[in-house]
């Protein structure tokens, strides 16, 4: 019998990438915008967050509606056509003239909605505070914003792909690979080098147990999640070879 290793727990999110994006943005001629006092004015900034998502930041210098008159309002929208179970948070800062992070009024957390876009709104600070020269909040009449966006995603490139069905069948064939994963009565078989290149989870696993271990008993593991991870490894490995 080949040597075995028992894995007590498996966090199916452990292999997911965490994408972090930080941008600095200026609202030009903020005093002029304040004098205009027009809530229809909005400034839009679009930027990528990681490889599979994008974000849109809308800034309403005079407030998004009458309830927030003269309050700087911001709406952040995240969009993705590929990601599953997307969750994200963001930190918003306004810099003062010394360059330090002046305020961080909101910390938001939101889950991805079924329509594949999620959004949140932050009402930042009163315009009169920003325009008061004694507060040193403007740089050459520009309001300096720093926005940090961080997303965690459970992305399965195999999701919804019919072409992965033959691969699912192959993963249950002992001839498909020399590494065996036992999840209760189910057996999965795979090749070591594909798994190492396909997921940090397996790279760490094989580094920990070495090359002699050929069989892994996976306790407290979702068969569905683990199968998706294996399929992802093969799809990602195939992309890397092209």
UniProtKB/TrEMBL annotation:
Do you know which InterPro entries this protein is assigned to? Answer: BTB/POZ_dom, SKP1/BTB/POZ_sf, TRAF-like
The family database entries (Pfam families) matched by this protein are listed as: BTB
SUPFAM superfamilies linked: POZ domain, TRAF domain-like
Name listed for the protein in its UniProt record: BTB domain-containing protein
Domain of life where this protein originates: Eukaryota
All copies of the BTB domain together span 177-230
Lineage of the source organism?
Answer: Eukaryota, Metazoa, Ecdysozoa, Arthropoda, Hexapoda
């Amino acid at each position: 019998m080949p040597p075995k290793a028992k894995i007590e727990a498996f966090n199916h999110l452990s292999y997911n990438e965490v994408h972090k994006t930080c941008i600095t943005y200026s609202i030009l001629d903020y005093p002029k915008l304040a004098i205009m006092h027009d809530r229809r004015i909005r400034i839009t900034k679009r930027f990528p967050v990681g490889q599979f998502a994008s974000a849109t930041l809308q800034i309403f210098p005079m407030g998004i509606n009458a309830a927030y008159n003269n309050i700087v309002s911001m709406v952040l929208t995240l969009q993705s056509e590929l990601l599953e179970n997307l969750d994200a948070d963001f930190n918003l800062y306004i810099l003062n003239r010394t360059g330090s992070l002046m305020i961080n009024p909101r910390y938001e957390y939101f889950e991805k909605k079924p329509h594949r876009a999620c959004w949140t709104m932050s009402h930042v600070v009163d315009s009169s505070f920003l325009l008061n020269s004694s507060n040193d909040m403007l740089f050459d009449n520009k309001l300096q914003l720093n926005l940090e966006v961080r997303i965690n995603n459970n992305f399965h490139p195999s999701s919804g792909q019919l072409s992965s069905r033959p691969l699912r069948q192959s993963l249950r064939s002992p001839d498909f690979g020399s590494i065996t994963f036992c999840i209760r009565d189910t057996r999965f078989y795979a090749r070591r080098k594909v798994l190492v290149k396909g997921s940090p989870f397996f790279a760490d696993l094989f580094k920990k147990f070495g090359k002699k271990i050929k069989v892994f008993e996976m306790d407290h593991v979702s068969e569905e999640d683990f199968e998706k991870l294996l399929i992802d490894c093969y799809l990602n490995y195939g992309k890397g070879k092209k």
